[in-house]
Write a structure and sequence with these properties.
93 residues; 3 helices; 85% helix; elongated
């Protein structure tokens, strides 16, 4: 079971909402909307994706990493390294 399983429906709702935002962005560009308005909507979609990312990361740390640490061994080190790499990717984006 994945760490986000308990909130899966909420994550799916949020991702569908973001998908709708992106479709709206496509329509805005097709309609030649004002640049700043498009950029404002891009910022909103980006923030929404960041919120989903942070939620998933939090669930990963609470569930997957914590479980691996409880079990110990090399698997625990791998999970911590994996989480650190994911954090680094999020910070760079």
């Amino acid at each position: 079971m994945r760490g986000y399983a308990s909130g899966k429906d909420d994550y799916l709702k949020r991702l569908r909402r973001i998908e709708g935002q992106v479709r709206g962005l496509q329509r805005m560009v097709e309609s030649d909307e004002y640049c700043i308005d498009v950029l404002t909507q891009i910022a909103a979609a980006t923030k929404a994706l960041q919120a989903v990312s942070l939620g998933l990361l939090d669930e990963h740390l609470k569930h997957c990493v914590a479980q691996a640490l409880t079990l110990g061994g090399e698997g625990a080190q791998d999970k911590v390294r994996e989480a650190s790499d994911a954090i680094a990717r999020l910070v760079r984006s």
